[in-house]
Amino acid sequence: MKKKKAAESEEVIKRPKTENKILVKKEAGLAEQFPVKYLPLKVFALYKAAGVDSERPELRVVRIEPQKAMATDGHVLLTIIPAEKFSVDKVFTVDAEMCAQIIKAKGLSGEDATIQLSDGVGQPVITVGNYRFSPSAQLELFEYESVLEQKTAPVGKISLGVAVMDKLLRSLRAVGVNHFTLEIAGEMDPVKVSAKVDGLDLVTGAIMPMRM
Is residue 49 part of a domain? Predict the structure, then answer.
């Protein structure tokens, strides 16, 4: 029964959706030609911030750089510098759908499975348990840091809980709001929310910031 379950699990993630998704079972006893490095799972979770526009494939990736990783759709940009240090020999990108497959492979391979990287020569190879990923399509991102950086000094800071923002967004979406305005008065003052539905219905409210 265990062998059958493992075979079914492999089949789940061995169906790439596009040509640049290469996922094959790792051959038993295969020796690595280059030193193996380890990548934290959270690096690949950034794919949620990547773009989905088929006409802008350079945004449909997670970019992995020395000591950090980032993803952007041109409107939202997230960069993570994990506490657990890692290093890569060269910058490379991993397609967002492949990132999702890597996360799935990690779950199927068990808690003790590690995400290994071999990037000495040629295309990088990522191995998770018995699964191997080769992100063959390498795409250059636009100069995202200069485009999305703040041009003026910040006027202040507030801290908002992710769960609070998630509830706000789900609630606004439920009543038909597509965009809204936030008015920030101070670090601990309520943040005013205002929006209109189809230019008619007025929606207002407030959210409380967290102590920083």
Answer: yes
Q: How far apart are CA 111 and CA 151, in angstroms?
A: 43
- Which pLDDT band, with edges at 50, 70 and 90, does 212 fall under? low
CA–CA separation, 91 vs 148, rounded Å? 20
Nearest to 64 by CA among 113, 14, 124, 5: 124
Based on the structure, what is the number of domains in the chain? Answer: 2
Based on the domain organization, do 92 and 56 belong to the same domain? yes
Cα gap 78→199, rounded to integer Å: 31
Strand partners, 117: 37, 126
Contacts of 157 (CB under 8 A, 6+ apart): 187, 212
Whether residues 89 and 193 fall in one domain: no
Q: Global pTM? A: 0.72
Q: For the residues 61-87, what does the mean pLDDT come to? A: 88
81 and 44 within one domain: yes
8 A C-beta contact, residue 119 and residue 88: yes
Same domain, 72 and 108: yes
The answer to whether residues 193 and 89 belong to one domain is: no
Beta-carbon contacts of residue 187 (< 8 Å; ≥ 6 apart):
156, 157, 158, 209, 212
Domain span holding position 121? 2-147
The beta-strand segments (E) located in the chain are 23-25, 37-38, 61-65, 68-72, 77-80, 92-95, 115-118, 125-128, 131-133, 181-183, 191-197, 201-207
